[in-house]
Amino acid sequence: MRDDPLISVTDVLARLDSAVVPRRSEPVPLAESLGCLLAEDVLAAEDQPAFDRSAIDGFAAAAGSAAGDYILAGDILPGDATPPAPLPGSAYRVFTGSAVPGNCGLVMQEEAVANGARVKLNRAATTDLIRRRGSSARAGARLLAAGTRIGPGEIAVLASVGAVSPRVIPSPRVLHLTTGREVVPAHLAPGPGQIRDTNGPLVHALLRTTGAVPLAARHVDESASALVDAVRAAGDFDLLLVSGGSSVGEHDRTAPALIELGFELLIRRVNVRPGKPLLVARRGDQWAFGLPGNPVSHFAAFHVFVSRAIRQMRGLPAAAFSRVRLGTGAALAASARETFWPAHLGMATVSARPWLDSGDLAALAGVNALVRVPAGRAPAAGDEVEVVVCPESA
C-alpha cells in the first residue's frame, strides 16, 4: 500500500461523479419524503379546486345582483355540498372555502350588514371573489415533475392529490464504524493513553447535514475480523464509513477488511492535506470510505468526498466549489499537497482559521467552510479562492 500512487483530488472527484449512481426509486411515506427527489411525475387526480369555492367570508347572491336588501336563505358551511343557486332577492351567508353555486356572485362581509333574517348588501355581487373549479389545475395536469426536490410546499401538493406514498429516490442508508483501542465513549473519563470518541458524534452530525439516514453506529476493535463481523451483522446499507485504520500501520486493518467483504479498493491514497490515507471502495451499488482517524481529516474528507457521493446517491448534482475573496485571518501555509484549510465564510469573504495539524480538534469550532489551497502556493488576503461550503443542515 505504501507504493500505491497518490491520486489528485480532481481525479477522485471525477471518479465519484462517473461511478456513483442514484439509489433505486421506491415509494416512501409522505412524511419521510422531505428532501428526496421525485422519481415520477405527479398529476392532478381531479380539477383543483374540485368545485367553485368562496375566497372570502361574506354573502352569495345571484350573479349580477345589485346592492340592496335580501332575504337570508341560510348558511353554506365549508364541507357542505353545493346548494342550488340563490333565488332572486335572496342570499346565502358563505365562508372561505364554502362550495358556491355557479350562477352567483359574492359580497365581502365588510360590505354588508346582516340583521336577523335579512342582509343589506352595500355593493353589487361580483364573481371575482370565487375560486373557480380547475382554476389552479385541471385533472391530469402535471403538478410536479420527476426530479423535483421535495420541500414543504411539495409535501402540501402531494397531500392535495392523495399521494401519501410518493415514489422517490430515497436517502442513502449509512453504516458508521469507529475503531481504535484507545477510544472510549464520550461520556466516560478517559484513562491513561485513552481519548474520548469524537469521530462518532462528528460523523453522525455530518450525516444529518446531507440528508442521509444514519444506521446503527458501532465501535469495534482494530482487527480485520471484528470489522468484517460488524459489517455482516449490520444488515443492508448503501454507504459504509469506517473511522480510522485507513493508513499503512501494523494496526490499520480497514483495507484488508473491505477486501474480505468483497469490496474493490479503488483509491488508497489521495494527494491532499489533511486526509491523505483515504480509502474508497465499491461492492456493486454499495460504497465504502475508510476515513483517516484524526478529526480534522474526518471533517475535510467528509465534506470534500463523502458528501459528494451521498449527493450522487440522492440523485442531486455535485455541489460546485464557491469562489470568494480571502479575507484577513490566519495566514495560509503552502504545502506540497493540495490543502483544505478550515475557515469561516462570511457575507463577502472567507477567513482562514488557525490550524496546527489534522489532530487539532479545537480548530473546527466555528468552521463553516474549507479553503482549497493549491499545492505549492499559499493565497494571500484579497486573492480569489475556491471554497467548500460546509452546510449546517440538509
Describe this structure in words.
- The chain has helices at residues 9-19, 152-160, 199-210, 224-233, 254-260, 295-313, and strands spanning 26-27, 37-38, 42-43, 53-54, 58-62, 68-76, 90-94, 104-108, 112-115, 118-121, 130-131, 142-144, 167-169, 173-178, 183-184, 195-196, 213-219, 239-243, 264-267, 272-273, 279-283, 286-291, 322-326, 338-345, 349-352, 369-373, 384-389.
- By secondary structure, it is of the alpha/beta class.
- It folds into four domains: 9-23 and 171-313, 3-Layer(aba) Sandwich (Molybdenum Cofactor Biosythetic Enzyme, Chain A); 30-47 and 136-169, Molybdopterin biosynthesis moea protein, domain 2; 53-131, Molybdopterin biosynthesis moea protein, domain 3 (Molybdopterin biosynthesis moeA protein, domain 3, Beta Complex), CATH 2.170.190.11; 322-389, Beta-clip (Beta Barrel), CATH 2.40.340.
- Strands 8-5-7-6-10-9 form a six-stranded mixed β-sheet, with no helix packed on it. A six-stranded mixed β-sheet has the order 17-14-18-22-21-19, sandwiched between helices. A five-stranded mixed barrel has the order 23-25-24-26-27.
- Strand 21 and strand 22 form a beta hairpin.
- The chain is elongated and about 95 Å long.
- The model has no long low-confidence stretch (mean pLDDT 92).
Alpha carbon gap, first and last residue: 36 Å
- Count of β-strands: 27
How is the main sheet built? Answer: 6 strands, mixed
- How does CATH name the architecture of the largest domain? 3-Layer(aba) Sandwich
Radius of gyration: 31 Å
Strand content range: 25-35%
What is the assigned CATH homologous superfamily of the largest domain?
MoaB/Mog-like domain
Number of domains: 4
The rough form would be described as elongated
Order of strands in the sheet with most strands: 8-5-7-6-10-9
Instruction: Indicate the low-confidence ranges by residue numbers.
Output: none
